[in-house]
């Protein structure tokens, strides 16, 4: 799978290309054991088909996730093909499409929208979007990047695969897409070509950003803490990173004398290349990352992807993500004394969790914590950046994730929303109850709707197969598609079972739960009481109450 780091060409002995069709997005490794472990959009496809969506109306658009955005188009004509896919779907189905993207897929879709501006005359751009895209559902979008990308670049992340971290790092750094998820500052934009930044007396890369004054007056670049603190030896006259034989002794003696220097880097200094240029003297292989950053990101002809994303000009936008999981937001690195790719080790990790910052070592952490924590992979400030897309007045509703009768529903209407500020609902939480909090436009531009859904304890990689997300997505789709729907968004007043699988046995009352919707009906082959609980009415009849 390795690519040549500089020109992103295939390994001379192996050519890999992305799969196509629904099989490419349902399971990564189909099989009796491996299938459920590697399921991605499989459950969502099953939901759609079960509720009457034709299979050929669900179109998968997988991409080679190893490539930087410009190479997707240069090598595979990916964005030309994606545009043609939307246009073909419109002709076949007679209406606009719904777009669902997860994680880095959101970065790809953002790039497509910017690429499209250069392909279509400006006066036809919005018209094309209105005709071809009805709604965009952004699931787990790393809108300001993820600190895990820094970990993968310097020490390696295996994602549970049976490889060493060094091997994972070697592979990750060969992919031009590795920098696509790097964290960046919400204060820096790429609209202006010049901004002043110095690195040890040398002018930085030729492709520059313009940062707001807040970037330099705010202590933490909009992130909860300094992202990277790295220990480098005082020895700087080496031509290559020290090998075990050549320089370990020098580093060890320097450490014993207290000579190593601690350098800290903000999100801006990660995304503008300052971090990588600083450690080039100690890790020459980093030069490939600097080259990729300058060519494929800062020098991209469409946009610099490492800049904040404004609300896409699509009529209906839904931003969905998990919160309140322990999430990595910063790292301490030190030289290991080993050769590349194992030359850096993580000495400490900074986490955000339930509104506080803590370190693995137990040491105190400086920084301003977010109001909540992220989804276990992406930090809260990156996921919740889409709250800036909401209108000036917002309605907030908090409801249990499980089926409910509305008794534990909390609603606050017409909350003032100021751009750049988080919205904090003044609502209570019952212990041991997982909630979903909806932020929905009360006021917005005519014809536009924006909503943000926060799901308690929803993990970044598993969110796309959570039954609660499947239910909410389907109800919103049903509401939008139905000609008799009256409200702006689907009602939150109650949630009942929609499928036989949602009915369960209530052991305390010795009957099926939700007796108004479910009944006991044994069918040969049922192996426990819950399997014999089935819907009284059809799913179509049950859906009528959500209009």
Can you walk through the features of this model?
This protein is of the alpha+beta class. Helix content is 26%, strand content 19%. The chain is built from 17 helices and 20 strands. It has helices at residues 23-26, 34-37, 42-50, 69-76, 78-93, 104-119, 122-132, 148-154, 165-174, 214-217, 248-256, 267-271, 274-278, 287-298, 380-383, 467-481, 539-543, and strands spanning 97-102, 133-139, 188-189, 198-199, 202-203, 210-211, 228-232, 261-265, 316-323, 327-335, 344-353, 356-359, 393-400, 410-416, 435-443, 449-456, 505-506, 511-512, 518-520, 533-535. The chain has a seven-stranded mixed beta sheet. Strands 8-7-10-11-12 form a five-stranded mixed beta sheet. A two-stranded antiparallel ribbon has the order 3-6. Strand 4 (198-199) and strand 5 form a beta hairpin. It is globular and about 75 Å long. Residues 192-207 and 237-256 have low confidence and may be disordered.
């Amino acid at each position: 799978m390795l690519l040549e780091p500089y020109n992103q060409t295939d390994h001379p002995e192996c050519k890999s290309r992305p799969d196509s069709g629904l099989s490419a997005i349902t399971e990564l490794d189909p099989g009796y054991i491996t299938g459920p472990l590697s399921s991605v959009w499989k459950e969502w496809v099953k939901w759609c088909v079960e509720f009457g969506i034709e299979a050929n109306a669900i179109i998968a658009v997988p991409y080679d996730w190893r490539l930087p955005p410009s190479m997707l188009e240069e090598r595979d004509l990916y964005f030309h093909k994606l545009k043609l896919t939307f246009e073909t779907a419109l002709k076949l189905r007679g209406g606009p499409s719904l777009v669902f993207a997860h994680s880095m897929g959101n970065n790809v879709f953002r790039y497509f929208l910017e690429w499209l501006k250069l392909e279509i005359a400006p006066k036809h751009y919005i018209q094309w979007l209105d005709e071809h895209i009805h709604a965009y559902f952004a699931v787990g979008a790393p809108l300001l990047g993820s600190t895990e990308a820094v970990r993968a670049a310097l020490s390696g992340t295996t994602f549970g695969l049976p490889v060493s971290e060094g091997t994972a790092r070697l592979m990750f750094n060969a992919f031009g897409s590795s920098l696509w998820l790097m964290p960046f500052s919400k204060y820096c934009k790429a609209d202006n070509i010049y901004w002043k930044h110095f690195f040890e007396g040398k002018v930085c890369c030729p492709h520059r950003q313009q940062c707001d004054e807040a970037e330099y007056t705010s202590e933490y670049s909009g992130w909860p803490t300094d992202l990277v603190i790295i220990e480098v030896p005082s020895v700087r006259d080496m031509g290559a990173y020290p090998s075990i034989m050549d320089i370990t002794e020098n580093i060890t003696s320097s450490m014993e004398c207290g000579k190593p220097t601690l350098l800290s880097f903000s999100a801006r200094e990660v995304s503008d290349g300052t971090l990588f240029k600083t450690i080039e003297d100690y890790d020459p292989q980093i030069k490939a990352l600097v080259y990729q950053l300058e060519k494929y990101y800062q020098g991209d002809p469409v946009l610099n992807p490492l800049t904040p994303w404004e609300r896409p000009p699509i009529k209906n936008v839904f931003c969905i993500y998990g919160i309140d999981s322990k999430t990595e937001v910063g790292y301490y690195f030190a030289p290991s004394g080993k050769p590349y790719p194992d030359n850096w080790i993580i000495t400490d990790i900074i986490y955000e969790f339930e509104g506080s910052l803590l370190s693995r070592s137990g040491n105190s952490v400086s920084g301003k914590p977010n109001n909540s924590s992220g989804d276990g992979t992406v930090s809260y400030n990156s996921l919740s950046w889409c709250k800036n897309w909401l209108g000036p007045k917002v309605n907030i509703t908090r409801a249990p994730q499980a089926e409910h009768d509305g008794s534990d529903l909390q609603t606050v209407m017409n909350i003032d929303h100021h751009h750049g500020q988080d919205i904090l609902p003044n609502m209570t939480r019952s212990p041991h109850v997982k909630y979903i909090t909806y932020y929905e436009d009360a006021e917005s531009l005519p014809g536009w709707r924006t909503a943000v859904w926060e799901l308690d304890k929803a993990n970044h990689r598993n969110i796309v197969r959570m039954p609660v997300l499947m239910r909410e997505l389907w109800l919103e789709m049903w509401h939008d598609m139905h000609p008799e729907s009256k409200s702006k968004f689907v009602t939150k007043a109650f949630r009942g079972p929609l499928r036989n699988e949602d009915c369960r046995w209530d052991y305390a009352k010795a009957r099926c739960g939700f007796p108004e919707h479910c009944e006991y009906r044994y069918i040969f082959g049922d192996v426990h009481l819950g399997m014999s609980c089935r819907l009284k009415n059809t799913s179509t009849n049950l859906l009528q109450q959500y209009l």
